[in-house]
Design a protein that fits this description.
mainly beta, 5-stranded antiparallel β-sheet
């Protein structure tokens, strides 16, 4: 069916996919229920449920950025298990640019 959500399978868990983000080393999925899940190490890598309550997911290099449903933007740098750093509030979208740093669209 055209337009139907895809299903991501991770072990026994199945989730509807709302969006996909791909970089040279990471594959990220934003599920329709607001989970940001990312895998490292190619298609054989395992999924890591990064966080939930997300409306935007962005990947760039070793950065993961999210905008939560409440409009707060958070970014992490490093591996999939790095700590999150809060950036700002009242954000509609987020762009991650390695040269310029995170850019926020309010």
């Amino acid at each position: 069916m055209v337009g139907a959500p895809i299903l991501a399978v991770s072990g026994p868990a199945r989730r509807k996919v709302g969006g996909v983000v791909i970089t040279s080393s990471w594959l990220g999925v934003l599920t329709t229920d607001g989970h940001a899940v990312v895998k490292d190490g190619g298609l054989a890598g395992g999924w890591v449920d990064e966080t939930n309550g997300v409306k935007r997911l962005r990947l760039s290099g070793n950065w993961i950025g999210v905008v939560f449903n409440d409009g707060t933007a958070w970014v992490k740098e490093g591996d999939l298990y790095a700590a999150w750093t809060p950036e700002t509030n009242n954000v509609a979208d987020l762009r991650l640019d390695r040269a310029a740093g995170p850019a926020l669209d309010e």
